[in-house]
Amino acid sequence: MTEAGPALPASVAATRSLKSRVVRAVLSLLVVGGIVMALAAFAYGRVAARASYDRLLLGAANEIAGAITISGGVPLVDLPTAAFQLLALAPDDRITYSVRSPGGQVITGQDTPLPETVRQAGGGFFDAEFTGLAAAERARFVTVPRRFAERDFSGTILVTVGQTLRARNAMALGLTRDALIVLGFAGVLLIVLGALVVESAMRPLVGLARDLAARDPYDLTPIDTPVPAEVAGMIGALNDFMLRLERQIASMRNLISDSAHQLRTPVAALRVQAELAAEETDPEIARATMVRIVRRSRSLGDLLDQMLSRALVIHRTAEARRVAVDLRDVALAVIETQDHALIAPGRDVALEIGAAPVLVLADDLSLTEAAKNLLANALRHGAGAVRMGAGIEDGAAVLWVRDAGPGPDAATLARIGARFERNAASRGRSAGLGLSIARAVAEAFGGRLALDPRPAGFRAALILPLSEEMP
Question: In angstroms, how far is the first alpha carbon of the chain from the final one?
Fold first, then answer.
């Protein structure tokens, strides 16, 4: 027997083992098969016993019929011992016989039953009650004719021999018992073999469970343990799950790292400025310091909003169900929230969308967060009027934000979108976090973030595959 597998966690609801299921199934089949086989064996035994003992009964009747002679016009019967020796093969059975004249009178023997149909047919087998015993008992009878056509006697003499059914029933039960014994041995063998086969088949799974239990908690590499083909699909699904989990953990680690990196400096600066304001005695200097504290607090609030937006996007892109989303609706929703009026009051912001739908298969909330970050990035780091729009370009869906500024230089453009990237226009705030959120959303839905300096201004765009539901 193999070793027991690792103990199951309390949260795992284990059902009956496969081994017990196979044993129960085999037992059920054996019970049903045993009943069917017993009935079949008993029926066959009765047929076989009837055929065997009918031949003995017929042989005894023929022996008696052959011993009949006619003397002086009178039938005489000299009972042969061979006839009763044949019937003695069933020692527990009772025997009766009769010899009847053509007129139906009993010449010798007992008054055995003789159905009219058998009499008219001139002989044959039949079943009837054996009445010569203390209690009536079923018996098997045979009647054979012996025809005479002599000068002083002419007619048919009927010889009837009967025997009870004890030996026949014993033979049928014996055949049934033998069949059930064979079935019992075969059943035990099948149960043992079934248990061994299941145990052998489960051995790779027990090894797999042991390997998983021994793994480092942070080891999310794919499982490469050889398993049967029937389990390969489950292992593939488990590997996919661990890959998604690893991505989620990596994203959360990046989020924590981002938070620590992004918040450390602003919080420290805010604390220092608050301490200076508390110690300052000059009202004008204290007022200027408080203004800087307010400005720094607003900047820190914007940063926290972006961090929360990133956390939301990490969760939504991994868990939310993909549905058909019209990018025009996303752009319209972002403009209608009027967040730009708080970020850059008085700035010229407009929407440019067409009449044709721009459908993608994605999550509406994640796309909205990405679009908000693109717009906020353009308002904070761009210049001039800002335009947001959606359309179809080169067979792809595009959600874009464009400002009138020249955009960053080539070196900065190559790095922008990475975490913590700052440019000269950012006034100390990270320009990379908002774009990294947009890039993460685009890549989660099979697209990309495109940063493109154009004659009309710098454009940042989410380029996504069109949905198959496009009309």
Answer: 63
Chain segment 166-217, per-residue pLDDT in tens = 888 888 888 888 888 888 888 888 888 877 887 887 788 788 888 888 888 8
Q: Which of 105, 96, 100 shows the shortest CA–CA distance to 156? A: 100
The answer on pLDDT for 424 being more than 50 is no
Q: What are the tens digits of pLDDT across the range 375-392?
A: 988 888 888 899 999 999
Q: Would you state the structure tokens that stand for residue 451, as one six-digit string?
A: 């940063």
CA distance 387 to 26: 74
Question: How far is the C-alpha of 233 from the C-alpha of 254, rounded, in Å?
Answer: 31
For 321-471, give the CATH class.
alpha beta
Distance of alpha carbon 334 from alpha carbon 325, whole angstroms: 14
Task: Tell me the C-alpha to C-alpha distance, in Å, between residue 270 and each of 54, 129, 169, 256, 282.
Answer: 116, 117, 106, 21, 19
pTM: 0.49
Length of the chain: 471
For residue 223, what are its two tokens? 């499982």
Domain boundaries, the chain: 14-214, 217-319, 321-471
Closest CA to 143 of 168, 130, 162, 167: 162
